Amino acid sequence: MDAGDVRGDLVFGIFGLILPFVCPDFPDQVNCKNTPILSIPGFSVYTEFVVEVDTRFGEYLMCNPDPDTGIFSCAAGPDGWRGCWYDNPQWHKDFASLCSPQECDCAALRHLSVGAETGPFTWSWPPGPDPPGWPSHTRGSLCQNYVASDGVVFKGRPLGGPQPAPEGPADCCAMCSRADKESGIPGLCQGWSLFSDTKLCQLWSNITDWQRCSNTNIINYNINNDNNNNNNNNNNNNSSSSTSTSQCLSGHRDMFARPEVQWVLELASTKLNGTWFSFDAQGQCRPGERPTGDGRCFWRLAETRATINATCINDRLKQLALNRNPSCFADCTPFHPSTSWNSLCYVSCLFEAFNGNASATLPVAGVTTQELEQLFEE
User: Fold this and answer.
1) Are 240 and 234 in contact (CB under 8 A)?
2) What is the pTM (predicted TM-score) of this model?
3) Percent of the chain with pLDDT over 90
């Protein structure tokens, strides 16, 4: 299971507020899948408990239910540690007696110890596992649904041939969104590559790899491969690509480029720098055992203090925002408790109340970390 301190757990609760607005574009993202067990009335709760642990913390694992069976399983996320266990100085120190230096992976670290991840949280979920050496993303306001990978061109299945993009990234983003809409397949277009010298944009599906951008021959190579394999008739488009040295920018489809998600990330990385924990059943102590540091077990549930329905905390969150930022909410439609929070106007005002907005007509200071923590204590 996954857990967190108050600030860490609040990130997940607040994140749920923006899912109705981003999930239509990202139905395959793990937080957007329809998992029946999570739809059971009263299933969503906050539980306060005390856990006794071996303080040698390992890798944080993401624990999610299988959409068919409802059984939870835990695995490292795409932003997890990519090296061997001994490449991490803290793990090399803490797990030297439990892990083999001849093996890159270590079961004690990944599946027995308590995983921990401490903020600031800047996590992301690409469309699939990153290939080895995947370029780092330059996050920002490139365009909605996409993050930038500078100086690379993707490799995968081209969607048609290169198309003119006189307005640059804005045109590429519009093309990608249009390809999704016309095909009826959300997320069909996973990314695009734009070349500065020709102002041509290539759309991609099924991205499998990437290559450093030196010239636009790369784009021809991939399109010709696709034509040969699938007998598509896009060869006429290839003649417009030049062979001169070119700068390029690629946009990689990513839910975490959305402005709504950035609101959550701003709050998570400034006022909610909490900690997440993952508890794998393999590391749980048997009845009568305690985590003494001998490696036999790593955690035990010592006490369950309280269980609160999640709607109680969520209602307090919303009321705190309504009280803090009334002028913003006044510009939205009249408030109705069952429908207003499905409005982007209300949710954007909520995050303005939480994060603050010094440039507003009536500046908003934003709530404090203490005010957010107190939601669990009242």
Assistant:
1) no
2) 0.73
3) 31
